[in-house]
Amino acid sequence: MKLETNPLRLAQGCEVFLNHCRVGKSLSPHSLRAYAIDLAEFQRYLGVDMEAQNVDRETLRGYLSYLMGPRRLSPASVKRRIACLKAFFRWLELEDRVPVTPFHRMDLRIRLPQRLPRGLSREEIAALLSAARRPFLHHSGSLSFDGCQHRPDRFNALTSLLALELLYASAVRVSELCALTAGDVLANDANGLRVHGKGNRERWVPITDDLLKDQLRHYLTVRDAWQPTGYPPIKRLLINSKGMPLTPTIIRKRLAALTRSAPLSRHVTPHMIRHTTATHLLQNGLDLRHTQRLLGHSSISTTEIYTAVSDRSLEEAMKRIQG
Predict the structure, then answer these.
(1) Considering only the top CATH level, what class is 122-322?
(2) Is 198 an annotated catalytic residue?
(3) CA dist., res. 78 & res. 303, Å (int)
(4) Is 201 part of the annotated catalytic residue set?
(5) Coil, helix or strand at residue 97
(6) Measured between alpha carbons, how far is 48 from 73 in angstroms, rounded to an integer?
(7) Of the listed 173, 196, 254, 275, which one is catalytic?
(8) Which of 36, 58, 134, 299 is most buried by its number of CB atoms within 10 A?
(9) Could you say which of 198, 201, 217, 267 is catalytic?
C-alpha cells in the first residue's frame, strides 16, 4: 500500500467523504445530513484540524468517553456517531489516505438497552382513523370525497387520511411514505406499493383493503388538480394543496392534529403506527419471516422484538379473562 504524498487533513477528508457518500453511495439526504453532523461534532471535539492518519485508538477512546460522559448521549446516539467514524476511516483506508483505520482490531462494543416498541391498541388506532375520516363521512355512513378537486381544505384532509391509512396498512417508515411516487402505487394494476427502503433496498408491500385501493385510485386522479402550474409535475405521491410534497415533519404535525381530534391522551408518532401494524399482524397469525419482509428488516433479529410485544399482550389478555 502506498499512501498519498500529502497528508490529509480531517476537514478535507470529511468533505471528500461526504461527496463520495452523496455521489458514489447514493445515500438519502437524511443519512447525509446525519453523517455531516456527526463528523462535524468529532472535529469540534478535537479542536484542531489534525492529520487524519494521526487519529489513533486513544483519540477514539477519549471521544467515546466524552460522548458518554459530558455529552450524556444515549447508547443509540453514541453508537450512531461511532458507526459514522468507522465508515469514514474505513473509506480513508480503502483510498490509501491512512495506513490503517484506527478502529482496526479495536474492541469497541456499545450495548443498547432492549426496549419494547410502543404501539397503539386497536381502539386507539380506530379512533385515529375515525378522526381522519370524519370530514368525509356521509350521513348514510359511507365516505364521500366530493370537492377534493376544488377545495384545499378537503384535499389536505384527504392527503392526511391517506397518509394515516398507508402507515397503518403497510407499516412503512415515514421517510419511505414521503418517498413514494405516484408510479410506486398500484403500478401495472398490481395491488400494492413499491417501497424504497434503507440502503436503497426495494420491497413490495401488498395492499389488501379494497376501500384503501379505491381511495388511492381516487387520490391519483384528484391530485393532478393540485399540481403547480408552469412547473414539471411533482412525482411524489403525497402533496399538499400548494402542490408541494409532504415531508416527514409535516406528516408528524398532521398526525399530532389527528391525535388531538380523536382525542387520544398520548402523543402518537408515525413509528408508533409502524410498530402497531407489526404487532397486530403477529397477533393475527402472520409469521415472523413475512413480518420481517413487510417491515424491510435486513435481519430477523430486529423483527423478533415484536414477538415479546405479542407475548406481553397475550399475558395481559389472559389476566383480564382469568381475573
Answers:
(1) mainly alpha
(2) yes
(3) 22
(4) no
(5) coil
(6) 23
(7) 173
(8) 36
(9) 198
φ, ψ at 143 (rounded to 5°):
-100, 135
CA 305 to the chain's CA centroid: 18
213: annotated active-site residue? no
- For the ranges 28-42, 199-213, 253-267, 303-317, the lowest mean pLDDT is seen at 303-317
Task: Return phi, psi of residue 225, to 5°.
Answer: -70, -15
Most confident of 95-109, 154-168, 232-246: 154-168
Is 138 a known active-site residue? no
Confidence of residue 29 (pLDDT cuts 50, 70, 90): confident
Annotation marks residue 218 as catalytic: no
173 carries an active-site annotation = yes
**pLDDT for 263:** 94
The domain 10-94 belongs to what CATH superfamily?
Answer: Tyrosine recombinase, N-terminal domain (1.10.150.130)
The full set of domain ranges for the chain reads 10-94, 122-322
Marked catalytic residue, from 9, 218, 271, 293: 271
pLDDT of residue 323: 47
Residues 128, 120 contacting (CB under 8 angstroms): yes
Which is nearest to 71 in space by CA: 48, 34, 51, 44? Answer: 44
Read off the pLDDT of residues 192-247 as tens digits, 9 standing for 90 and up. 899 988 777 889 999 989 999 999 999 999 999 998 888 888 899 999 999 999 99
Predicted TM-score (pTM) of the model is 0.68
Residue 122 near residue 280 (C-beta atoms within 8 A): yes
Among residues 97, 274, 275, 280, the one annotated as catalytic is 274
Computed over every residue of the chain, the mean pLDDT equals 88
**Residues making up the chain, counted from first to last:** 323
